[in-house]
Amino acid sequence: MIDKRRVWRRSVFLVGLMILTATEASRVFTARVAPEQTAGAGSAWGYGGGPHQIRYSALSQITRTNVNRLAVAWTYDTGEAGALQTQPVMAGGRVYGYTPSHKLFSLNAATGEHLWTFDSGIRGSGPNRGVMVWTGAEGTRVFAAVTNYLYAIDATTGKPIPAFGTAGRIDLREHLNREPESQGVRLTTPGVVYKDFVIVGGRVGEGLPTSPGDVRAYDVRTGALRWSFHTIPHPGEFGYETWPKEAWTYSGGANSWPGMALDEARGIVYVPTGSAASDFYGADRLGDNLFANSLIALDAATGKRIWHFQMVRHDLWDRDLPSPPSLVTIRQNGRDIAAVAQATKHGYLFLFDRTNGVPIFPIEYKTFPESAMPGEVVNRMQPIPTKPRPFARQQLTQDLLSTRTPEVHTWALEQFKTFRSEGQFVPFDVGRQTVVFPGFDGGAEWGGQAFDPQTGLYYVNANDLAWTGGLAPNTGGQSGQALYLQHCASCHRDDRLGTPPSIPSLVGIGERRSFAELTSAVRQGTGRMAGFPSLDQPSINAILQFVSTGKDAVAGRGRGGGATTEGRGAAGEGRAAAAPSPLINNSFRFTGYRKFLAPDGYPATAPPWGTLSAINLNTGEYAWQVPLGEYPELVAKGLTNTGSENYGGPVVTAGGLVFIGATNADRKFRAFDKTTGKRLWETVMRGPGRATPAMYETDGRQFVVIATGGGGAATESATAAYVAFALPRPAGR
To answer: What secondary structure does DSSP assign to 384-419, as a single string?
Structure first.
């Protein structure tokens, strides 16, 4: 039953918070709108709104007073079931997006009329968040990713441009100083276009062996490689001494998967990176591991480092930088400062002078616990900004456990007593679970943040859930179960149950997917899962027999172990696996991502479970924070304003609004007053909008467009669609 007294106290708290936030809003300092930040004027909308990644629109046709009149202007149904995280891109009167299987399409931006679709012939899956657009004397090109390939597509015809790379595409597995066939790189988030370069990072695996996270620039016309920046430094390069001497030959990760920001006037690209592999045990990568978990400012023309800042040293918690940085102009002491803001998974916002990397607010280095794991050496000093305060809770304590019902609270308390919960940067160990709060998905996550140059307010949505993690001895071996524990259990857990819906259960997977489909998924990756190109076919066959049936077999002796057609992967039956480096230390493995949920599936912590915050970057103080999202079935029982898990980011407008979808549980698209956080409009869509919306003007109307897709049993079968909202046309038009 609901504890109504606690619900009442939470309601009083929220009302008080709204009063406080309205007061804080009156203290907002107005920042001068820099000319470089008016890209949201309406004629185009790039990924993140434009190269500065501030998701700001200068359009004001839709306002606080008329937003309640918004209606669906057009819908484009992809005809494919599945989730979408694609941010629509609008250029030249056309909207570009992906279907769930990564077909690229073009629409008329005013009507949603379908113009063309490009089908590469490769069935993609999982995140594919947007495209890059370049216009030159030869016309407009759209750069689209499908698995490990980057295509250059003619914007008029939807056909590949033959002169780019090989038959219109380049292979991102090449130019890594390693055997291409053994590499796995996918462009899940677009990079940036600078003059005649397209600059990209990519997603790689999170366990060894895997690919390094090189940042690379390619010629937009020919696809030729123009420069590379090694995020795992080679001998003689800056940061080489922060790794073991041979790490550049075998280590991986430190990759820029969340996207980048570009200061075109200064010729600087700002690159956020993720953790080094393997994520949770780093005995084979002792040292700080530059440039993992770093914000790097590179000369966009040459790839040379200008400055960097490492947010997490020797990361053991998968604390990737989860979103592109935002290039902002703030005002302090009577002067404008060109700055860069970077949000993190652990709930902090770092703000730097974008020209030299000097922090805008002081950063302190605090001491955290040692590791008890053999061979592991942590860096106990980690940077913590003094302002702003974190936008997500930092330590799970007993008083933050759910009181939704007495039974849930009793269960949560029993579980909590078995955990180690001491806040940030506590190394994992064997035999017990350690709390990660906020969880592995943040805090901040991939959808990005918005900045309003009119007011200096920065908007960040965040997850506020607890997860747990731990380590176990890696017994090795070549049976299906042993290989599963080495390569798959870190996500899908030892029991194969995963953490649905983000990490699916594999129990009974053989009844839902064919052997060929599963083979392709293991080799090439699918959804959030990176591929395992270094595994040979007999090893894959043994893993698939174990996950499909629960029965163990030695690699090569199970189903598909011989020369069967059914077991042939993309690289052919019996392809030899790349020998892992003897310097890789896999003595311990991660036991799996575990979301701290009650038996009935709701978070075992007290709300809020998701938030939307507005932070004044001039002062480092909060203007407001509100819960984001609800669970309809809990609302029916009287429990409202809980917040929910959310993915996708906000857009802020000159019309006084913040638009955001993002919420998993309620499938709503909302508009908030940007000054007070008051919700002014909402609509329920057929699937959750787990993508950041686009905002543009065409044919005299302001449009906001969002991608919707599957999410949960009720909507997973619904086809994914792009929905455009606008004000009704005046009578007679």
So the answer is: EESSSPPSS-----GGGB--SSHHHHHHHHHHHTTS
Answer whether the bond into residue 388 is a cis peptide, omega within 30°.
yes
pTM for the model: 0.88
Alpha carbon 508 to its chain centroid, in Å, reads: 28
Q: What does the alpha-carbon distance between residue 418 and residue 296 come to, in Å, rounded to a whole number?
A: 39
Residue 469 to residue 492: CA distance in whole angstroms: 12
Task: Count the Cβ atoms, other than its own, within 10 Å of residue 527.
Answer: 14
C-alpha distance from residue 710 to each of 81, 447, 580, 593, 715 (Å): 7, 17, 38, 22, 5
Q: Which residues contact 80 (CB under 8 A, 6 or more apart)?
A: 99, 100, 101, 719, 720
Please name the residue that has the structure tokens 């002169």: 163
Domains present along the chain, CATH in parentheses:
475-585 (1.10.760.10)
Tokens of 625: 């924070």
| Amino acid present at 272 | P
Phi, psi of 471 (to 5 degrees): -120, 160
Q: For the chain, how far is it from start to end, CA to CA, in angstroms?
A: 54
For residues 98 and 78, give the distance between their C-alpha atoms in angstroms, rounded to a whole number.
8
Phi, psi of 680 (to 5 degrees): -110, -20
Q: Is it true that the peptide bond before 627 is cis, omega within 30 degrees of 0?
A: no
Grouped pLDDT means (10 residues each) for the chain, 733 residues: 40 39 38 46 89 98 98 97 95 97 98 98 94 96 97 98 98 96 95 98 94 98 98 98 97 97 98 97 97 98 98 98 98 96 98 98 98 96 98 98 97 98 97 97 96 98 97 82 73 75 74 73 69 73 77 60 29 44 92 95 98 98 98 96 96 98 95 98 95 96 94 58 94 60
Alpha carbons 82 and 164: distance in angstroms, whole number: 31
Alpha-carbon span 369 to 366, nearest angstrom: 10
pLDDT for residue 690: 94
DSSP 30: P
Asked, as a colleague might, if the bond just before 209 is cis with ω within 30 of 0, I would say yes
Backbone angles phi, psi at 41, to 5 degrees: -65, -20
Question: What is the identity of the amino acid at 130?
Answer: G
Token pair 């004000």 in the structure block, residue: 727
Which pLDDT tens digit goes with each residue over 457-496? Answer: 999 999 999 999 999 999 877 777 777 777 777 678 777 7
The beta-strand segments (E) located in 293-348 are 294-299, 305-310, 326-332, 335-343
Strands 335-343 and 349-353: antiparallel
- What six digits make up the tokens of 74? 């057009």
* Sheet hosting strand 335-343, strand order edge to edge: 326-332, 335-343, 349-353
pLDDT digits (tens, 9 = 90+) for 22-61: 433 333 334 444 444 444 567 899 999 999 999 999 999 9
Taking the C-alpha atoms of residue 537 and residue 187, their distance in angstroms, rounded to an integer, is 25
Cα–Cα distance for residue pair 344/323, rounded to 1 Å: 8
pLDDT in tens, 263-274: 999 999 999 999
- Give the separation between CA 293 and CA 1, rounded to whole angstroms: 43
Q: Which DSSP helix (H) or strand (E) runs through 483? A: helix 480-487
* CA distances for 19 relative to 6, 39, 300, angstroms: 20, 33, 45
Strands 268-272 and 719-726 turn out to be unpaired
Angstrom distance (rounded) from CA 397 to CA 394: 10
> Residue 144 and residue 157: Cα distance in Å, rounded?
14
